[in-house]
Amino acid sequence: MASVLSPPLPRTFRLPVSGRYLGGRLLTGLVAVWGAITLVFFALYSTGNPALLLVPPDAPPDEVERLTRVLGFDRPIPEQYVTFLGTVLTGRFPDSIRYGENPLPIALEKVPASLALGATGLLIGTLLGGLIGYWSATARSSWLRRGPLGVAVAFESVPTFFIGILLVLVFAVNLGWFPATNGRGLPGLVLPAVTLALAFIPAIARVFRTALLDVLQAEHIRTARAKGLPHHLLVRRHVVANALGTTLNVVGIQAGVMLGGAVVTESVFGWPGIGQLSINAVQNRDYPLVIVCVLVIAAGFVLINLLVDVLAALVEPRLRS
């Protein structure tokens, strides 16, 4: 009697990570963003009265007191914090002191420029860091194993602003290849992106090198080597793929800080991103705008790290647990 074959069941789509994991990460991210905003709020509102910057230097004390009362800075800081949270929960932030409008659109307008700078720097840093880590783990030449990694680690000890100023002096002032500050388009992006990439390279190179060396000592790699698989095929097909998961986690951390970590770089090169906006807001004591900038940077950090975790789980199935 012929058996009747049942039709194959349709495949269901499964996320590389569980919904509970995603929910937990989002909840943790919300708590982290709230904590960052709270710390910045109390740190800012404890530094002084921003109304002093909105009146002329020779303004009478009565005018300062009136403006302070209108803006609500005469109330205790905990009371101002409760009022601030209530305003945020309604979907609107307190108006910017300098611009006189909702600061959220002002901050979001600067995000594309910061993302362009951060993504370009991260791409350059990841490619060069991965290449250096690959050389230091697999190269037969002792110079290739030690030289590039040593140079990368040496750059890690140099402050970012000093590297930026040095690049400006060499490539903008002396050679005139790129604009020094306030550059637009691709020429203006090169120097700040390279400055940011030099900060990303060392960590990525070290982690990728360590991951490669760990995989090279694995049992299945030894078996493949004993069977005579060529070294270059062994490394490219089996070693690199298994080492990418750990490296992607480090790339995720670097990607998460590319919005806030580019503050110094944006200041040196006059790049019109959220980092420079944050510094200007701090100098002007525009507290609502500073808090919104921190909110955008913290939320970006959480979302980017979550995205990279999902990508790492796709590349390395062992991370899905």
Write a brief caption for the model.
The protein has helices spanning 19-45, 61-71, 77-89, 103-138, 142-156, 160-174, 185-216, 219-226, 231-256, 263-269, 274-283, 287-315.
Overview of the molecule:
With 321 residues, this protein is an all-alpha fold. It has 2 domains: 19-89, no CATH class; 105-320, MetI-like fold (Orthogonal Bundle). The protein has helices at residues 19-45, 61-71, 77-89, 103-138, 142-156, 160-174, 185-216, 219-226, 231-256, 263-269, 274-283, 287-315. α6 runs parallel beside α10 and α7 packs across α9. The longest helix is centred in the middle third of the chain and has 36 residues, at 103-138. The two termini are 45 Å apart.
Features:
single chain; 321 residues; mainly alpha; MetI-like fold; 71% helix; 0% strand
Structural class: mainly alpha
Q: Any idea what the CATH superfamily of the largest domain is called?
A: MetI-like
Shape: elongated
What is the fold named in CATH at topology level of the largest domain? Answer: MetI-like fold
Pfam families: BPD_transp_1, BPD_transp_1_N
GO cellular component, one term: plasma membrane
Organism: Actinoplanes lutulentus
Protein name: Peptide/nickel transport system permease protein
